[in-house]
Amino acid sequence: MLGTPGVGKSTLAMQLAEKTGLEWLEVSRVAQQLGCLQEYDEVYQCPVLDEDKLLDNMEFMMGPGGKIVDYHGCDFFPERWFDIVFVLRTNNTLLYDRLTNRGYKVQECEIFQTILEEAQRSYKEEIVHQLSSNTPEEMEDNLNKMVAWVDCWRDSHKTSIS
User: Where does the chain bind ATP (predicted)?
Assistant: First the structure.
């Protein structure tokens, strides 16, 4: 699950994990727990991610499948890890309000569709799905769509997952 900060990734990933029993991997938290953060970037006001170290550590987690991966970028994740990629999008005015209310420094990623385009460049077109995440109703609809997709995925993988 991808999207800029403030689009509802973590909220939706947590709800999806609760409804499906799949494991939720919040990549920022995983990176911190595994010591995959390097020096602090003053420009972006965040730690720099050691992508190679993170991937090496996540490989064993991703092997069996059935994971919900929650992060704001994707171009370094191997395509083999994903059967589907959901990119959450939010209206820029709503996103600006959400981020400023959280005290975030507002960036232009959503305006320029950076995350969506990164996903489209990184993965097969048929597995990348854009979902609008503006209102609680849209978020509920997105959750229902994702649960239905997981149910279909489970049906088609019955012999390979527990």
Answer: 6, 8-11, 102
